[in-house]
Amino acid sequence: MAVFNWISGYSHLHLCFYGLCLVSPTMADAGGPGVWQIGPVMPPPTAPKSALKETQEVVSVLVVDDSRFMTRVVKSALESLGVQVVGVAGDGLEALEQFQQHRPDVTLLDITMPNMDGLECLTRIREIDADARVVMLSAVQDEETVAKCLKLGAATFLRKPIRMGNSEDEQRLQLALGITAPQIS
User: Fold this and answer.
1) What's the distance, Cα to Cα, between the start and end of the chain in Å?
2) What phi and psi values does residue 9 have, to the nearest 5 degrees?
3) What pLDDT, in 10s, does the model give residues 7-53?
4) In Å, what is the CA distance from 6 to each residue of 10, 43, 61, 107, 184?
5) What phi and psi values does residue 151 have, to the nearest 5 degrees?
6) What are the domain boundaries of the chain?
7) Is the dihedral of CA 139, 143, 145, 151 positive or negative?
8) Which homologous superfamily is 42-177 in?
9) How does the average pLDDT of the chain come out, rounded?
């Protein structure tokens, strides 16, 4: 089970999985949302408040991934958390159309896709809506790519895979989406 612990005015986040603790950098050290030293999740402490909803409201999400299997898995995991999936797109071009149509609270965006990759799509979404909350969800995890995503305006970065029924993965999603979901047993 994961333990989430915000410390010192939201400047650090500690995630503990089976005795391994991951610590985010301070906002001052990183000059904004930072890259974790180790680990799959980066916190969204500076996300625009307008992008986050109260726990009683349903959060709308657009899922963008070229793998149909992955979109089904992520959609199912989100729905189990009480999140409304307003659209599913298989590439960046389709994602832009769906983003403009649905204006989701959060866009979960893969990096490696045909027609338009996730980095270009992230840039274009942020041009459409500078306050858009985009969470990168990818198997690509080298530090340079993660840093580039954050520099382009991603709220956070989640590492694939997301496993259905896995409480730690569901908690990673909750944290990335900025929501409190029903208790997972």
Assistant:
1) 10
2) 60, 40
3) 223 333 333 333 333 334 433 333 344 443 334 344 443 444 334 44
4) 6, 10, 25, 24, 20
5) -65, -35
6) 42-177
7) positive
8) Response regulator (3.40.50.2300)
9) 74
Residue 111: closest CA among 73, 158, 168, 69: 158
Q: Give burial (CB, 10 Å; 0-12/13-18/19+) of 178.
A: buried
**Which string of b and e fits 60-74 if b means at least 16 CB within 10 Å?**
bbbbbbbeeebbebb
Q: Report the alpha-carbon distance of residue 120 to residue 97 in Å, rounded.
A: 14
**For residues 162 and 77, is the Cβ–Cβ distance under 8 A?**
yes
Task: Calculate the CA 181 to chain-centre distance.
Answer: 15
Q: What are the C-alpha distances in Å from 153 to residues 14, 48, 130, 142, 150?
A: 23, 12, 8, 17, 5
Instruction: Cite the beta strand spans of 53-101 per DSSP E.
Output: 60-64, 84-89
0.90 cut: is pTM over it?
no
Radius of gyration of the chain (CA): 15
